[in-house]
């Protein structure tokens, strides 16, 4: 009984997160300006991280946790570099 | 006290780094505690080399109260912003910039205020000018500037000033 | 449905509740990213997913693994800490970069001068 409840709700959460990723990707594709695209990319990263966490709950292993942590940190570094680029036109001063 | 300060200049940072290491390793074995202690010592001495301006958590009770308020406000503003997003078109047109003069000058206090305001959806820290002490922020539901100013000054700033000044 | 860990019923219900609520909040934030009219309004949308969405899913994950391995597993706190500290930094940097660019290009979005401070 309970694996079924959990399985269905994880599937529901994954579908919702997939839609969330689709909206973020749409914003990334449509723009219209560079900063809109970057914020879309950043949201995409966070949503992907949450998707990995739900995968981890389904499989019952904590391996996915490390991947999620790395995605979260890489997303942060990438977005900061891009924002810096918007501000100055170069990343390393 | 001074001897302890010389060996362990940042005791809170030391504990935080050690806790982070043990959480990442997911174990409490003596070996991991030893490794974590080494890493935390290294981190503390790196901080000594960076030499940040001194701070002190003088009022842990006030800090806890602030954390509680932020926790409640994150819930409330999530609901508010969610209803704006899903609501009618007209509700999405009230966004705007506003400015606010802050009495808080402590750098750590300002950093925490910035994180709190950006973390609660609906208010976005944009720019702070330390010379005139004016903060510019963007608010999603800008109907009454005075009300937002009151929320920020009374709910957060007064507590932060109590903690840091 | 495909395999999922075998938890006691109460834990399964709790975990289900938290992850579905978290995913829903994240979806609303991303819809906001799509629906809100201009860049500065869109800045408010991702923090929905980064605060309540992430927090809720992480609480679900914490309950799930703590029950599965029958000891408290709280390393998800690390992700929550990182996300709550890093998301504001990126959003602030983006806001400043965007104000700077809009002012240089003379776009109508941000005001030319900072607005007058609101006094109480």
UniProtKB/TrEMBL annotation, chain A:
Keywords: Antiport, Cell membrane, Ion transport, Membrane, Transmembrane, Transmembrane helix, Transport. The keyword Transport applies. This is K+/H+ antiporter subunit F. Pfam families: MrpF_PhaF (PF04066). InterPro entries: MrpF/PhaF-like (IPR007208). Belongs to the CPA3 antiporters (TC 2.A.63) subunit F family. The keyword Transmembrane helix applies. It comes from Ancylobacter moscoviensis. It is found in: Cell membrane. The chain crosses the membrane at residues 6-26, 38-57, 63-87. It comes from the Bacteria. It is a multi-pass membrane protein.
TrEMBL record, chain B:
InterPro entries: Cation_antiport_E. The chain crosses the membrane at residues 7-25, 31-50, 108-128. It is found in: Cell membrane. Keywords: Cell membrane, Membrane, Transmembrane, Transmembrane helix. Pfam families: MNHE (PF01899). One of its GO terms (molecular function) is monoatomic cation transmembrane transporter activity. The keyword Transmembrane helix applies. The keyword rRNA processing does not apply. Its main location: membrane. It is a multi-pass membrane protein. GO terms for cellular component: plasma membrane. Belongs to the CPA3 antiporters (TC 2.A.63) subunit E family. This is Na(+)/H(+) antiporter subunit E1. It comes from Starkeya nomas.
UniProtKB/TrEMBL annotation, chain C:
The chain crosses the membrane at residues 12-36, 48-68, 74-95. Signal peptide: none annotated. Keywords: Membrane, Transmembrane, Transmembrane helix. The keyword Coiled coil does not apply. One of its GO terms (molecular function) is sodium:proton antiporter activity. This is Na(+)/H(+) antiporter subunit G. It comes from Starkeya nomas.
């Amino acid at each position: 009984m309970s694996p079924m409840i959990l399985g269905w709700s994880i599937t529901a959460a994954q579908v919702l997160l997939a839609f969330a990723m689709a909206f973020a990707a749409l914003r990334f594709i449509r723009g219209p300006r560079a900063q809109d695209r970057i914020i879309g990319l950043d949201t995409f990263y966070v949503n992907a991280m949450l998707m990995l966490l739900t995968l981890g709950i389904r499989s019952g292993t904590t391996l996915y946790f490390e991947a999620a942590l790395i995605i979260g940190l890489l997303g942060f570094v990438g977005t900061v570099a891009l924002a810096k680029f918007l501000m100055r036109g170069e990343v390393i001063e | 006290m001074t001897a302890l300060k010389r060996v362990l200049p940042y005791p809170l940072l030391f504990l935080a780094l050690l806790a982070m290491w043990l959480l990442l390793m997911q174990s409490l074995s003596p070996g991991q505690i030893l490794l974590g202690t080494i890493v935390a010592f290294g981190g503390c001495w790196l901080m000594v080399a960076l030499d940040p301006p001194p701070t002190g958590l003088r009022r842990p009770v006030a800090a806890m109260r602030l954390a509680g308020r932020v926790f409640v406000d994150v819930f409330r503003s999530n609901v508010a912003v969610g209803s704006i997003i899903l609501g009618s078109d007209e509700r999405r047109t009230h966004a705007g910039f506003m400015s606010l003069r802050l009495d808080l000058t402590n750098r750590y206090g300002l950093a925490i205020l910035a994180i709190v305001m950006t973390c609660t959806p609906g208010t976005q820290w944009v720019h702070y000018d330390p010379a005139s002490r004016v903060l510019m922020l963007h608010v999603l539901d800008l109907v009454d500037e005075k009300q937002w100013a009151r929320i920020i000054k009374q709910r957060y700033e007064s507590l932060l000033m109590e903690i840091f000044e | 449905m495909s395999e999922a860990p075998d938890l006691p019923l109460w834990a399964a219900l709790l975990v289900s509740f938290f992850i579905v609520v978290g995913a829903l909040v994240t979806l609303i934030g991303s819809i906001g990213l799509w629906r809100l009219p201009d860049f500065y309004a869109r800045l408010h949308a991702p923090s929905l997913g980064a605060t309540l969405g992430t927090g809720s899913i992480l609480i679900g994950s914490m309950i799930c693994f703590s029950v599965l391995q029958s000891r408290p597993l709280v390393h998800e706190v690390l992700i929550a800490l990182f996300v709550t500290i890093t998301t504001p930094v990126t959003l602030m940097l983006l806001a400043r970069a965007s104000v700077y660019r809009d002012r240089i290009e003379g776009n109508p979005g941000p005001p030319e001068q900072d607005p007058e401070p609101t006094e109480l």
